[in-house]
Amino acid sequence: MHALPWRQTVRRRKEAVVADRVSDFLAQWERERPDLDVSPMGVIGRLSRVSEITGRALSRTFTAHGLTSGEFDTLATLRRAGSPFTLTPGELAASSMVTGAAMTNRLQRLEDKGLLVRATDPENRRRVHVRLTDDGRARVDEVVVEHMRTEQDLLDAHLTRTQQGELAALLATFLESSGDVSMRRD
User: Fold this and answer.
1) 75-97 pLDDT, tens per residue?
2) pTM, to two decimals
3) Is the Cβ–Cβ distance between 116 and 130 less than 8 Å?
């Protein structure tokens, strides 16, 4: 049987790839199904593993400050909105890609912690606004510094700054071509 063209490319590149768990899975699939191009599994599998590893590290940061990842995301979204640090629950849910019910539960927990308040719009009583409290702003401003440090430490431990830029550009290309485009209206 002749080697498939993609298989030759994969074999040439394999020597430069560091052995990781995904490499083990790929080798098993290549052994069991040599007719399949398993290289996409290498990319997607590694993205998944990186997400798990970074998620655990970031979760430790948030937990140290009495927050979950989702709670930090909500506080950070309000903080990024700028003064007066107010959005609707629907805007927060859309930004976080969670259901309205999940956002309602998250908002209740954050309100119980004194980090945000919900208030009915005086001009439209069906509309609610969510606003950071002073304590909420102080908490997110404190946590975001450690959050950025954790992310930078993770990247610096494994990639040069040039590699980080290249990876960011490749991921941005993937996301944009997948339809995940900016919601900014500049």
Assistant:
1) 999 999 999 999 999 899 888 87
2) 0.79
3) yes
